[in-house]
Amino acid sequence: MSSYTSWAALCGLGLGLGLWLVFVNLPGWRRMAFADRIAPHVRVGVRSSRMLEDSWHSDSGHSALGQLAAPMLQQIKKLASLHSPSAGTLRKRLNAAGLDMSLVDYRSQEIVYALAGLVAGSAFMALAAVQYHVSLFLSVLVVIGFGISGYALRGWWLGEQIHRRSRKILTQFPTVAEVLALTVGAGESTTGAIERISRICHGVIGEEFTKTLNDIHAGTPMVQAMQNMSDRMQVGAMTRFVDAIVVATERGTPLAQVLRDQAQDVRDASKRELMEVAGKREISMLIPVVFGILPLTIVFAVFPGLALLEMSY
């Protein structure tokens, strides 16, 4: 690849990026924020029309170049927030995944994954350069792409850990809720029921109940400790379960019946999810039948007849 081709590819990349920024910022494609939607209805003290304002000089602290680069910076921030969330969001995701690590450790792992991607990309391009003639521009793009892929791989794996942990919690939760209902219905207190669950239950939800029991013994109110547990799990069924316990405790509703109803709701939700998954997997289940079993059946049905025709001739 000559130098002219490299510069042409770079200019084409810049043109495509500019057209993409213009396209995604069109009013028809740009999603309006909730604050922008309600701002005209709650604005107070504005007596002049906004059409008379000079929008170019509205931000007096920014230069013209900064205002021109603002859409691109907003898009970069949005993409960065998707793959690198803020400290509070990241802390919630780590708790939902059940990982006892600090934010610095997680960021360090992201850097390690990115460096591993860069090393893998460099090795791949070195092997490719031995066999073929590869331009420097393409090599740099491939290496950077490997680094970004390695960085994004850590975030993807964190999402997978959260999903697997939530599935385990939903699998164990109905049984735990029924045991809690039986224990409370037998006359034991809520704290005693939690202590019993922490002793007899193993797995993810058992560890969370153990942490909740430790918080209660440390002086945290029972309701607050349960809410902290639901915040750590980040599971909708567990949040509804804790909310039902809080409401039943505040209003004096029989707690055993509330726990039974919550267990039944979770079982029904699991059945609905199973039916939805089965409905989505119908097409994927047809692929081995149509492309594997059906052609093999046709071959077994037609081949003996073809063999007899050849023998007759």
TrEMBL record:
The chain crosses the membrane at residues 6-26, 111-130, 136-157, 285-309. It is a multi-pass membrane protein. Its main location: membrane. It is found in: Cell membrane. Keywords: Cell membrane, Membrane, Transmembrane, Transmembrane helix. Coiled coil: none annotated. Residues 178-302 form the Type II secretion system protein GspF domain. This is Pilus assembly protein TadB.
